[in-house]
Amino acid sequence: MFYDWFLDALRQDYELMRVIKESARGSIRLLRHRKTGKKFILRQFCGSPEVYRKLLLISCANLPDIYEVSTKGSETLVLEEYIEGDTLGHLLQGALFSTWETRDIVTQVCQALWVLHSMEAVHRDIKPENIILRGRDAVLIDFDAARIHKPTLETDTRILGTVGFAAPEQYGISQSDPRADIYSLGVLINVMLTGEHPSRCLASGRMGRIVERCTRVNPAKRYKNVLRLMEAF
Asked: Which of 37, 45, 71, 230 has the fewest CB atoms within 10 Å, measured from its CB?
């Protein structure tokens, strides 16, 4: 009932500016509130709303504010803050990042992940397209693939993630936990510094050693948590 009411309210109070992304799994739309002119993101996808619901109560400079979450069957609607800025994916088309810039941005992503991991949530889709630079703030977005870690399960219920960035355990080997995000962070660091996956060209020096530890196949041999990774920086 609330889902249908929410949809009606959106149609009345917001206008569609553009469709950012649309696929078989769902869509992302940019809306503008008719009275205030403020922009919002509307996500519509088939999947669990658990992580988005937990984020309703969270305020963090490195995460978007979540304003409303509604479900109907397997369908989930999320109204969230519009983050204005460029994605790392877009910026990497023009140039690589320096070691200092990489350390600063990834540290902020770690701060976002510390919030998520403290809620027993795993993002599972860390990649340049899901990080937006808003001024000096790095903001981690898109929790459609995120899930709550459940110690009683042996494997993930759904195999999701981006090839090249997803940890091996995300392909059904075992259940992903926060160390899966650390694997993806290692790939991200390497791509920001070299433009390549670490299997093709490993970053040099200390950053390369950090990447190597992040991306070990055995999760137990990676950094224990994002705080340990930040200490390594």
From this structure: 37
